[in-house]
Amino acid sequence: MNLRPFISALGLLFLLEPSTTGNALRASGGQEDSESSPLTLSAPSRLSSTPLDLLYDVPSGPRIRRQGSSTCQMVNFEGNGDLNPVRTLGSPITATFNGSWQSLVDADANGSGNFANEPSPSTILVFTNAAGNSIDFSEPVQSVSIAYSAGASSLPVALSAWSGSQGTGNPVASDSGSVLGDRAGGANCQGDPNGQLCAWGSLTAAAPGNFIRSITFPGAGADSVGFDNLEFCTSSATGECTPNDSTLCLNGGRFEVRARWQVRSGDSGQASAVPLTPDTGYFWFFDRDNVEAVIKILDACAINQNFWAFAAGLTDVEVTITVTDTETGLVRVYENSLGTPFAPIQDTNAFDTCP
After folding, report:
1. What's residue 14's pLDDT?
2. For the residues of 3-71, what is the DSSP string, one character each?
3. Fewer beta carbons below 10 Å: N end or C end of the chain?
4. Contact (Cβ atoms closer than 8 angstroms) between residue 108 and residue 143
């Protein structure tokens, strides 16, 4: 484990320097780091830190709240201590922190952090290695929000949400923020007068349904961004597929399939839908006796934990096929360019939304 002092590459988040006693570390810089209140940590205490599986309620209210058709959980990092690893938080849905996540306590609370105005005093989260820092959820969620603070050179801060664990699968939502947190850089800091990073923004990744399994922070450097107050919500609302002249409802009605066409003249329209089997249907564009595209959605959860989408076309007009998983809101769009023979679609990773 890399036990280097928590020094941001930008010198923004926290500054630690060896004291004259050898193993001690002293916070430096800023009003909170005066000689009258040094921070002293022994090297052995840092080495003996063990991962903690803890849940902490938000100081201002309950841990679980309901908002419309959504149920939300918020976890913070209070009580995890200073410079300690963080692994799993939350209940009933848990958030697992992969990589080098560690908690950091504000110097105002006798910790080593050089920050202020954190949303849940006095502990935030950082990672000490830029690689492999994801947050996994034990069940898929619809939205994820987290507070952040960063200096100018670390902006924008990006958040990506994924359908698989540890930043794998399909990207399903994203957000980025450019709130300047660095007091020295001119941040508009109100409240706590101490701490270099003193203004906070918020990132939110929201998907149409419950299919976020992990989040990552692409481009964020080690020790350069602080995070606080992780909130994740699940939606109890589910959609329904209603079959009609332009809509196929396949695989037990779970998947809604629609198509549009466009020709060289610019004329366009909604394709007409005809069901064939519970999993299969076709579309016609100009004449009901002229089949233009066939599609099927297969349940392959027992094979690779995915629903498969297969389609074929008998046309070279522009075609856009939209498939929606009504249980999660995940959407897949398949396109054929104008003047191009319709190429077969064999997407065996179309929807990794198996029960």
Report:
1. 39
2. ------TTS-S--EEE-TTSS-EEE-SSGGG-TTS-----HHHHHT---EE-----TTS-SEEEETTEE
3. C
4. no
Residues 6+ apart with CB under 8 A from 29: 15, 114, 196
Q: Side chain identity at 322, as an amino acid letter?
A: T
Name 38's Cβ contacts closer than 8 Å, sequence gap at least 6: 19, 24, 26, 27
| Cis geometry, peptide bond prior to residue 38 (ω within 30 degrees of 0) | no
CA–CA gap between residue 157 and residue 148 (Å, rounded): 8
Whether pTM > 0.70 for this model: the answer is no
CA distance 330 to 315: 27
Q: How many CA atoms lie within 13 A of 255 on its CB side?
A: 28
Cβ–Cβ contacts within 10 Å for residue 314, how many? 12
Residue owning tokens 């990506």? 160
| Distant-in-sequence contacts of 297-303, Cβ < 8 A, 24+ apart | 297/250, 297/251, 297/254, 297/255, 297/257, 297/323, 297/350, 298/251, 299/251, 300/348, 301/354, 301/355
Interacting residues of 300 by C-beta distance below 8 A, sequence separation 6+: 306, 307, 308, 348
* Intervals of the chain under pLDDT 50: 1-68
Are residues 56 and 89 in contact, defined by beta-carbon separation less than 8 angstroms?
Answer: yes
What is the enclosing helix (H) or strand (E) of 87?
Answer: strand 84-89
How far is Cα 193 from Cα 209, in angstroms, rounded to an integer?
A: 41
Could you give the CA distance from residue 211 to residue 49 in angstroms, rounded to a whole number?
Answer: 34
Residue with tokens 């897949």: 332
CA atoms within a 13 Å half-sphere pointing along the CA-CB vector of 132: 6
What pLDDT is stored for residue 69 in this prediction?
57
